Amino acid sequence: MRVDQGHGLLLGDCWRRGQATRHVPATVTTPIRPSPARGEPVDATSSTARHATHVLELGTTRAVVSEYAAALRALTVRGTELIEPHDADGPPPLAAGAVLVPWPNRVDGGRWLLSGVEQQLEITEPAAGHAVHGLLMRTRYSRGSCAAASVTLAAPVTPQPGYPFTLDTAVEYELAPDGVVVRHRVRNAGNGPAPVALGTHPYLRIGDVPVRDLTLTVPAGRAFRMDDRFIPTGTYDVTGTDDDLRGGVHVGDGPGHACFTDLAVSGGVVTSSLRAPDGRTLELWQEPAFGYVQMWVTDRFPGPGGETDAVAVEPMTAPPNALRTGEALRWLLPDETWTLTWGLRLAQG
């Protein structure tokens, strides 16, 4: 490896040289030290935390991918920024862009039953008492194949309290002229069936348009009722309610925290979108195996200039609390591999 002294990015043998932006730390002030073992949690304050990004380029499309949580950290198409930026090193703040595996969202109390035996996961959302966003949120992935416009990152899930299973996981980011295609692979590397669900957590934007002025469309016929700890208690038909986003609603006027299902498929995919007043539209498409969309609006996203508004639109294969309820869990047989695809694309107005 080498340090690009002009741009302050750590480059591997096949990394694309790119101009640094505010998405990536712009200076290197410490010497390179041996990296900790990949696939293990790493101290976010260490020097290695600042050097774990991959810059991808394809024409006017540019992305930055972090090895921490395999997070999509930046995406720009034709000069338009499509991902909320942050300056944090190491694991992404508020799960920004992270891969959520082997479950997305929450497990109530971190408890679930496996063959009648209660399992207790580590509580990672102490205020509510939940286990949240899977087991690889603080993991630094290892780099697999890479090219100028693509990179594959991989990390194992190993047996631990509350999840006694072994998985091999990988995610590939591949640029397209109008955005990015993301492919996930999960393989059961253990000796028995393993329960799996997967999600991602991108915070979306369209350039400098205020987030609350964007129009959000989600093609969902049903939404989940949530209790005060954001655990589902059932679903309801959204027709005629403020949670019907099929016709589009301003982010500032819509629900602040919701999970949707009964998603309409068109052209083989489910497509949610954000539209700017000038007509530019960011589409998030997902294969039907992603049968759920979680959305969250916050005014506390840690942007480069301080806390700011942001909206997360999250494709998920299962709803919150799936380990406990069993809803939409995929039980992988030994050596079985599950492949899932979603992506982002910018359409001009």
Give a quick rundown of the structure.
It comes from Jiangella ureilytica. This protein has 349 residues and is mainly β.
What features would you describe in this structure?
- The chain is mainly β and 349 residues long.
- The chain has a single domain (2-347), classed as Beta-galactosidase, Chain A, domain 5, CATH 2.70.98.
- The protein has one helix and 29 strands.
- It has one helix at 322-325; strands at 2-4, 9-11, 53-58, 61-66, 72-77, 80-81, 99-100, 106-107, 111-114, 117-120, 131-132, 142-147, 150-157, 167-176, 179-188, 194-196, 199-200, 203-204, 215-217, 220-226, 232-237, 249-250, 257-263, 270-275, 281-286, 292-303, 306-316, 330-332, 337-347.
- The strands form eight sheets. Strands 12-13-14-15-29-25-24-19-22 form a nine-stranded antiparallel β-sheet, with no helix packed on it.
- The longest helix is centred in the last third of the chain and has 4 residues, at 322-325.
- It is globular and about 55 Å long.
- 46% of the residues are buried.
- Mean pLDDT is 88; it is low at 1-38 and 42-46.
- Residues 29-48 are annotated as: Disordered.
- One of its GO terms (biological process) is carbohydrate metabolic process.
- This is Aldose epimerase.
Count the strands?
29
In round numbers, the mean pLDDT is: 88
Helix content: under 10%
Order of helices and strands: EEEEEEEEEEEEEEEEEEEEEEEEEEEHEE
Derived structural class: mainly beta
Give the C-level CATH assignment: Mainly Beta
State which percent range the strand residues make up.
35-45%
Distance between the termini: 42 Å
Q: Architecture, according to CATH?
A: Distorted Sandwich
Count of DSSP H/I helices? 1
Strand line-up of the largest beta sheet: 12-13-14-15-29-25-24-19-22
Question: What is the radius of gyration computed over CA atoms, rounded to a whole number of angstroms?
Answer: 19 Å
The domain tally reads 1
Stretches with pLDDT under 50, minimum 5 residues: 1-38, 42-46
Characterize the main sheet.
Answer: 9 strands, antiparallel
Find the CATH topology: Beta-galactosidase, Chain A, domain 5
Coarse morphology: globular
